[in-house]
Amino acid sequence: MKILGENSKAFGISHGKIGQKIIDMLRKFDVDVHFTHKDNFDSRTNYLLVEENGNCTVVAEKGVQISDADFQDMLLNMKNEIQNNDYLVLSGDASNYSDSTVYNKILTELKDKNLKVFLDTSGDSLKKCIKESPFLIKPNLDELSSLCGRTLTCNDDDILSAIDSLEPYNIEIIAVSLGSAGSIIKTPDGIYKATPPKVNVVNTIGCGDCFLSGLIFGISKNMTTTYMIQLATAASAATAESSMSVGFELSRALELIPLVTVSKIR
Questions:
Q1: Which one of 44, 46, 249, 261 counts the least CB within 10 Å of its CB?
Q2: CA distances for 211 relative to 65, 119, 129, 183, angstroms
Q3: Cβ within 8 Å of residue 17, ≥6 positions away
Q4: According to the model, what pLDDT value does residue 55 have?
């Protein structure tokens, strides 16, 4: 979000020297950090292995189990810092906390703030938190398959049927990420399909995060649906051709916007 020029606050729980380094890196990008930091243990390190043929492998440490006390400290930070009508992004694997309804708990505590909630998680956390009717979810094909209870293909009709099955949850935007095939996005004014530009893919890690940041930024600036999707897709493509595992070159993303094809399919 900072790359796109939007101020943001970060909440989380960090541990040890590695956790402090994460905080320092966020502050380097002028992110307003409100972490609960503990000196015991160390936050996990993820290793990104990029082969010459472009294949990417992530080796992820398990991470520190989060205590109830640390979770409550983080929640208090959020209640104090998050303002009415803010945008809240709930992102990442929450399996290192004993309760898979962790995101539900956060939203319950913040329900009076009238937040626009963007949910980007998987597994039980995703299944349970959609019951809170977040504004946006961003499942990939496997995650969407899990939500609708059947194995899906990249076929448009198959995906549209799965999106329709989530109607009872009142989720305004469902952005289904399909990797190099682009995305299918259900919005309040219709369902759109985005085809990304052809780029030299160096690294696919972080593409989904940057895609989400583009959508959030577009919504916050009241962009047209088509341009919002073009921006998000271009940010993702710019990330794919970068050696960085996080972020993209804004100038490159802007160059790619006209090369993104967006069509309304329903």
A1: 46
A2: 29, 13, 21, 10
A3: 42
A4: 76
**What is the rounded distance in angstroms from the CA atom of residue 27 to the CA atom of residue 125?**
28
- Going by C-alpha positions, the residue among 26, 1, 216, 206 that lies closest to residue 117 is 216
Phi, psi (rounded to 5 degrees) for 35:
-85, 150
> Domains along the chain?
1-65 (no CATH), 148-266 (3.40.1190.20)
Long-range contacts of 74-80 (CB under 8 A, 24+ apart): 74/11, 74/12, 74/13, 74/35, 74/36, 75/105, 75/106, 75/109, 77/11, 77/34, 77/35, 77/36, 78/11, 78/34, 78/106, 78/109, 78/110, 79/109, 79/110
Task: Give the residues across from 15 on adjacent strands.
Answer: 38
Angle at 246 between CA 175 and CA 237, to 5 degrees: 50
Which residues, including other chains, have CB under 8 Å from residue 11's CB and lie 6 or more apart?
Answer: 34, 35, 74, 77, 78, 81
pLDDT mean by block of 10 residues, the chain; 266 residues: 92 95 94 94 87 80 90 96 97 88 96 97 94 97 94 94 96 95 96 95 86 97 98 95 81 96 96
Q: Considering only CA atoms, which of 144, 208, 137 is closest in space to residue 172?
A: 137
Phi/psi for 154 (5° steps) reads -80, 5
With b meaning 16 or more CB within 10 Å and e meaning fewer, what string describes 216-251?
Answer: bbbbeeebebeebbbbbbbbbbbbbbbeebebbeee
pLDDT at 228: 98
